[in-house]
Amino acid sequence: xxxxxxxxxxxxxxxxxxxxxxxxxxxxxxxxxxxxxxxxxxxxxxxxxxxxxxxxxxxxxxxxxxxxxxxxxxxxxxxxxxxxxxxxxxxxxxxxxxxxxxxxxxxxxxxxxxxxxxxxxxxxxxxxx
Length: 129
Hints:
The protein is mainly α. The protein contains 9 helices and no strands.
C-alpha cells in the first residue's frame, strides 16, 4: 500500500490489473482509506504503532489482570494460595508482587501467615520495592 500510494494512477492500474482480483480489491480499499502521511518513514512508523497497539489489545483481552488474579487468590484456601504464589515467584516475581499488592490486607496477611518467616519476609521485601 505504501509503494502503490506513491505511484501515479496509470502505474497503479497496471499493477492491480495483473493481481488476483480479491487481492487487488483489498489493496484498492486500503489505498482509498489511506489517511497516513505521504512521508514513507512516518507512514511506516504509523503502521508499526497500529500493529503493536492491536497486539497489545489482543493480549489484554486474553489475560486476567492483576486485580482479577488477586481476587482469585484471596478466595482460595490461604495455604494453597501461599504454595501457588511461592511456585509462581520462581517464574515471575513481578506478577506475584502485583497480585499481592492488589489484594486487601486481610487476605494478604492470611496468605503470608501460611508461609515461613523467611518466605513472608522475602515477599514483603518484593512488595516494598
